[in-house]
Amino acid sequence: MMPILFSVQSFHMFSYSFFLIVSWIVWSFLFWRHLRNLAIAEEQIFDTMFYATIVAFATSRMSFVFTHFPLFRDNLLRIFALWLQPGLSLTGGLVGAIIVIVFMAFQRNKTSIASLLDAFSQAFAWASVVGYAGSFLDGTTIGKIAGVPWAVQYVGSVGRRHPVELYMIVALLCIILCCFFAAKKVSAKKAGEGSVAMIFFALYAIAFFVIEFFTESDVYWGSLSANQWIMVLVFSQSLGAFYVQGGGKEQLVRVTGLITQRINNVIGGLYDRISKRRSG
């Protein structure tokens, strides 16, 4: 572990802070390059990047505050003082960024939500690799005690533990490979737009959910951690998107029409009976 990369007198450059900045730069560049290749206006790209960054940071911080409120109960000003009480939620930031991207796509009718999500997912994957590397050096996320040969010693923790950040990096590299082949199919028109994002979020949710079992977490909702419940939501949304893309939308419309017709028939039959009784 190396929580501090280097020091200059009283100034300390922390590993997590440095890699967090680098990961944002990686995400910004890849997101911009992907959308630029789709001939999307530079102004819209930078607007989306700006608002996604601001909202993701805010939701990331507020998610951490919500799940760790006892740390802030005595002094609410600590919410805004990251140097006094650090803490960000990756899942909270991810959800916030996706909401902004969807909103921005609706604001600009000429831009496809699927295209924006494809660009975001590919950029986010590489940025996450960098971010998890910084988290591992800093020891931000701690694994559970393990007896495996590759277990590591975290600073300030007892016993050797699962290197959960390394697990996630390996999983992300595999997911990136899958997304690469999916992107090739999209560019060759063999798959629809949004396929890359759907594959990424589905696989990412599975990987995150499984690795969370090896992670020390102090926030549980029932038998699962808060992060795992969020990943269940992400995975379910990905499956829903796959279903709609595969023709499920038309089936939903047809089923909804049949249900509506059935309800109208039942209501109409009841109304006729009531009318006959009254006339009688």
Describe this protein's structure.
The protein is mainly alpha-helical. It has one domain. The chain has seven helices and six strands, in the order E-E-H-H-H-H-E-E-H-H-E-E-H. The strands form three sheets. It has a two-stranded antiparallel ribbon. The protein has a two-stranded antiparallel sheet with strand order 3-4. A hairpin with a 2-residue loop joins strand 1 and strand 2. The protein is globular and about 65 Å long. About 2% of the residues have low confidence.
Low-confidence stretches: 248-253
What Rg do the Cα atoms give?
A: 24 Å
Structural class: mainly alpha
Instruction: Tell me the strand percentage band.
Output: 5-15%
Mean pLDDT: 83
Strand arrangement, major sheet = 1-2
How many angstroms separate the termini? 87 Å
Largest β sheet strand count, sense and barrel closure: 2 strands, antiparallel
The total count of helices amounts to 7
Helix content: 55-70%
Order of helices and strands: EEHHHHEEHHEEH
Number of domains: 1
From the spread of the alpha carbons, the general shape counts as: globular
Number of strands: 6
